[in-house]
Design goal:
alpha+beta
């Protein structure tokens, strides 16, 4: 792989184990000299591992142990009623969307069966995967949202609220698991995901399965 250019698609392919041995060697040679890229690549790999875990089976012990070692030492975040209004908000920026470029330009012809979004901010990074759910005939489309929140410091990931985009009208409120993974089933629409991370709230804007 000559004149290797690292982009999110290549990092995701590396994280998912989809590259040839030669390409893996080339990518890892670049990562060895680029700490920020290496941090993002490591994050992508952990996200792939967590999102591939089948909820119908126990989480592999080795993965659970590693996840606990990464997140268990973070202090417990305490949130109560009205936490959305009381905590400082940090808006995350979209850095990757796996959908075609035409879709990003507003030419979407419909929802994909599955796609990924990656957001970054000074507070935390958030990787989102949306998968279409099986439906009975006549049911409206629904998707499962998996959001992996990776704080930059030692703050814990606590509650998360999915709201209609640009509002505080809640669609669902859940708690993250001990690894910072959030699961929410959603229908059609455009949403913001607000996540309490320590004493702040990270805002993941404009999440839409369409």
């Amino acid at each position: 792989m000559s004149e290797l250019k690292i982009n999110p698609e290549l990092l995701l392919a590396w994280a998912a184990g989809e590259l040839s041995a030669a390409d893996v060697t080339a990518v890892e040679a670049v990562l060895a000299g680029a700490p920020e890229l290496a941090r993002r690549a490591t994050r992508f790999r952990k996200v792939v591992e967590l999102m591939r875990t089948d909820d119908s089976r126990p989480v592999p012990a080795a993965l659970l142990t590693e996840a606990k070692s990464l997140f268990a030492e973070r202090r417990t975040a305490k949130v109560g009623p009205g936490w959305l209004e009381s905590l400082k908000r940090v808006v995350a920026a979209l850095v990757y969307d796996s959908r075609p470029r035409g879709a990003l330009a507003g030419l979407r012809s419909g929802a994909s069966d599955s796609f990924q979004l990656s957001y970054e901010s000074e507070l935390a990074d958030v990787d989102v995967q949306l998968d279409s759910l099986p439906l009975d005939a006549g049911d409206p489309p629904r998707w499962r949202m998996l959001a992996q929140v990776t704080p930059h410091g030692d703050a814990a990931v606590a509650s998360a609220v999915l709201v209609h985009a640009g509002t505080l009208d809640a669609v669902a409120e859940v708690r993250a698991d001990e690894t910072g993974l959030i699961r929410i089933d959603v229908s059609s629409g455009r949403f913001d995901l607000l996540v309490a991370v320590g004493a702040d709230v990270i805002v993941v804007p404009g999440v839409s399965p369409e």
